[in-house]
Q: What sequence folds into this?
């Protein structure tokens, strides 16, 4: 008699998933290209079109997205720098509490960028099999962390039909 309560692992599904994961290329990393960084977030990103996106997205669309990101950074980071400067001057008197406004403003900037990337993904990039994210990565030259734009290739999952 068959054991109806037993759970068996389907080996074919695992093989298909491993093939899908193996087919996705490495994500494209876009590092900050500005001359000023506040808490790891650069004041601008480079609009140069990466070679890995050729035939996936139009260079104009890529440039427009980067320009929207840079416009958000252009509006928010100068205020963050002013608060950081004031916070550093008053840091000894306030026992570090004067740095809280710049930390909150930095979090708000990250949140705004994440919302913008979410909108871009839902309106254009998900249809093209791409996903943009703002993520922290370690710098190549030292142990500091920086925020980078990560463009991931979303694999299209094949429909599994048992024979």
A:
């Amino acid at each position: 008699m068959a054991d109806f309560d037993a759970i068996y692992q389907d080996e074919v599904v695992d093989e298909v998933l491993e093939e899908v994961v193996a087919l996705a290329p490495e994500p494209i990393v876009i590092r900050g290209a500005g001359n000023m960084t506040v808490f790891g977030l650069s004041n601008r990103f480079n609009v140069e079109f990466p070679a890995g996106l050729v035939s996936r997205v139009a260079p104009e669309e890529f440039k427009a997205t980067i320009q929207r990101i840079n416009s958000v950074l252009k509006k928010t980071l100068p205020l963050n720098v002013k608060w950081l400067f004031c916070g550093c001057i008053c840091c000894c008197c306030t026992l570090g509490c004067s740095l809280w406004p710049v930390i909150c403003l930095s979090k708000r900037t990250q949140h705004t960028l994440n919302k913008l990337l979410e909108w871009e993904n839902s309106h254009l990039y998900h249809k093209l099999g791409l996903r943009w994210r703002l993520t922290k990565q370690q710098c190549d030259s030292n142990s500091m962390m920086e925020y980078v734009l990560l463009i991931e290739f979303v694999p299209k999952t094949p429909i599994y039909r048992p024979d």
Summary: The mean pLDDT is 80. The helical segments are 11-23, 59-89, 91-94, 100-125.
